[in-house]
Amino acid sequence: KSIAKGSFTWSSPSNIALVKYWGKKQDQIPENPSISFTLNNCKTTTTVHFSKKENDVDYSFEVFLDGEKKDDFKPKIKTFFKRVEAYLPFLKDYHFKIETENTFPHSSGIASSASGMSALALCLMSIEKELIESVSEENFIQKASFLARLGSGSACRSLEGDLVVWGKHDKIKGSSDLFGVKYPYEVHQDFENYQDTILLVDKGEKQVSSTVGHNLMHGHPFAVERFKQANKNLSEMIAILKEGNLDGFIALVESEALTLHSMMMTSMPYFILMKPNTLEIINKIWAYRKSSDSKVCFTLDAGANVHVLYPAREKDAVLEFIKDELVAYCQNGQYINDIIGFGAKQS
Ligand code: PMV
């Protein structure tokens, strides 16, 4: 079908991995499977306006963040377009105006690549559906996740909720290296409305990008063992989620976070993304857990910020603990309260 112009809008959330993806092969194929909580409040809303143009050799698009033209986003989007063109042949037939905004402060140190790339992938899929009309609902989400993966690996876990697996795992039905799938097994009610308070420890630009970090896993002395361990941890997660084994959850999730950072510290060249306040917070969480029967725990992504995870029933107590003891370690006292969510929405 030939359509002169139109526009689509999608909101897509960020996600936080419990078993981490760190290390990839060509074409954004993960070295090991991962599982994440989809978030709810940290999200990107993107509108893509498309208008027909003469087919020529190059892509034609412009990008706006919060209404301001952002030419520095263009190289990343151009790379993404190049990677997905084989799957979206209309890309050179249209001019695109991409308007995007985040609910979280930019340069907050919260990566917007998962929410941003998944929202963009969904808008492009809506255009494809409008032009082709034969895309089924299931294929739509799967292909959007496939495309999002080519933008930023972990973005393929942001389309659905509340738990998403990406990467082939022999115990997880339907899992694939090519796209994320909704976690297919029983989850104990203790994980319902699980909370994630994100403590913004350092809002500065990361010294080492995740692309460089992933690449340093090639030939890393502990890589093979790490990939095996991630597979084993994901197997163990199945029983933990089913039984509501919160102590098992804490041990697995915190170990995953520290293992991710230990891979960074043992890369060559080595690097450290945690800051002194990251460690202060971790020690405070451990002390709090020791002095109470709390099931609060932490995880980290590729940065200094700390995600504080806890069951919904502990919300009031943990928020008080955060305000009394942890906010002092946040840059400008900033933190974001989030909760497990259910994925992207069209608007
Ligand atoms: O999706 P990328 O390439 O930005 O890598 C993200 C990797 C981690 O956030 C550190 C872990 C994960 O599984 O999300």
Per-chain topology:
Blueprint: E1 5-19, E2 24-25, E3 29-30, E4 34-52, E5 60-65, E6 68-69, H1 74-84, E7 94-102, H2 113-132, H3 137-151, E8 163-166, E9 180-182, E10 195-199, H4 210-215, H5 223-243, H6 246-265, H7 276-290, E11 297-300, E12 306-310, H8 315-326, E13 335-339, E14 345-346
Parallel strand pairs: 5-7
Antiparallel strand pairs: 1-4, 1-14, 2-3, 4-7, 4-8, 5-6, 8-9, 10-12, 10-13, 11-12
Helix pairs in contact: 2-3, 5-6
Bound molecules: (3R)-3-hydroxy-3-methyl-5-(phosphonooxy)pentanoic acid.
Describe this protein's structure:
The protein is an alpha+beta fold. The chain has two domains: 5-186, Ribosomal Protein S5, domain 2, CATH 3.30.230.10; 189-339, 2-Layer Sandwich (Alpha-Beta Plaits). It is built from eight helices and 14 strands. Strands 1, 4, 5, 6, 7, 8, 9 and 14 form an eight-stranded mixed β-sheet that branches. A four-stranded antiparallel β-sheet has the order 11-12-10-13. Strand 11 (297-300) and strand 12 (306-310) form a beta hairpin. The radius of gyration is 20 Å and the shape is globular. It starts with a strand and ends with a strand. The mean pLDDT is 95. Bound molecules: (3R)-3-hydroxy-3-methyl-5-(phosphonooxy)pentanoic acid.
| Number of helical regions | 8
Q: What is the level 1 CATH name of the largest domain?
A: Alpha Beta
Question: How many β-strand runs?
Answer: 14
The total number of structural domains is: 2
The major sheet is characterized as: 8 strands, mixed
Q: What structural category characterises the helix and strand content? A: alpha+beta
CATH arch. level architecture of the largest domain: 2-Layer Sandwich
Keywords: ATP-binding, Lipid biosynthesis, Lipid metabolism, Lyase, Nucleotide-binding
Organism: Algibacter mikhailovii
InterPro entries: GHMP_kinase_C_sf, Mev_decarb, MVD-like_N, Mvd1_C, Ribosomal_Su5_D2-typ_SF, Ribsml_uS5_D2-typ_fold_subgr
GO molecular function, one term: carboxy-lyase activity
